[in-house]
TrEMBL record:
Family annotation (InterPro entries): DNA-bd_dom_put_sf, MerR-type_HTH_dom, MerR_fam
Organism: Ammonicoccus fulvus
Keyword terms, alphabetized: DNA-binding
UniProt keyword DNA-binding present: yes
Pfam families in the record: MerR_1
Record's protein name: MerR family transcriptional regulator
UniProt cross-references to CDD domains, sorted A to Z: HTH_MerR-like_sg5
Domain HTH merR-type: 1-70
Superkingdom of the source species: Bacteria
Length: 208
């Protein structure tokens, strides 16, 4: 297919596709002349995935590129890179948060990478919640880890059950980035439901 058809199939403007090509987010098409190239269904899938990572998942162009590159190395690398792309440690952790983190991980029996961005981000969250609101996530919200464990088991079982390696890798990436957004949206809807039960006379602020 030509560029115009690729644009129609992917739902992206030609200018956006050319930008993705320049940034290395999309592999070049097969050259048919100095100014023309032919694209395939694989390009359509790649564009849709890229758009999901950037527009819905909120990844930067650089982070999306890193995730897409890691997909060439297999599902574990793709999963780890997607996790790292979603969080940015701020270095707020202290001795207390490191101890609470160790307690949580040991209680759950998890084998994790202590130097991963996710682990550092969790330690940052622990100390930030304590300083901002006096919340000890490990003690006060202990059930969260159990729920996260159940969700992660489901995630990995679903990913492993996909029919081919390509689907497994894509599933790992999409499930990690968009799954987090999906779960958070569900949590917000549940908040609305139970807050209406707890405070039935309260009303929402007017929409802007």
């Amino acid at each position: 297919m030509r560029m115009a058809e690729l644009s129609r199939e992917s739902g992206l403007p030609v200018a956006t596709i050319k930008f993705y090509l320049r940034e290395g987010l999309l592999p070049p098409g097969e050259r048919t002349s100095p100014n023309q190239a032919r694209y395939s269904d694989e390009h359509v899938r790649r564009l849709r995935l890229t758009r999901a990572l950037i527009d819905v998942g909120g990844l930067s162009v650089a982070s999306a590129r890193a995730v897409l590159d890691a997909m060439e190395e297999g599902p574990i690398a793709a999963l780890a890179t997607a996790q790292d792309a979603m969080v940015e440690p701020i270095g707020a952790e202290d001795q207390w948060s490191r101890e609470r983190y160790e307690e949580l991980v040991q209680n759950m029996g998890w084998e994790v990478y202590a130097d991963s961005a996710a682990a550092q981000h969790l330690r940052d969250l622990l100390v930030t919640a304590r300083n901002a609101a006096g919340i000890d996530f490990v003690a006060d919200w202990s059930a969260y880890a159990e729920h996260a464990d159940a969700v992660a088991r489901h995630d990995l079982a679903w990913i492993a059950g996909l029919p081919d390696l390509e689907g497994t890798i894509s599933g790992a990436v999409v499930g990690t980035v968009l799954g987090a957004a999906y779960f958070n949206a569900l949590r917000m809807l549940a908040h609305q439901h139970y807050s209406k039960q707890r405070w039935p006379n309260a009303s929402l602020p007017p929409a802007e």
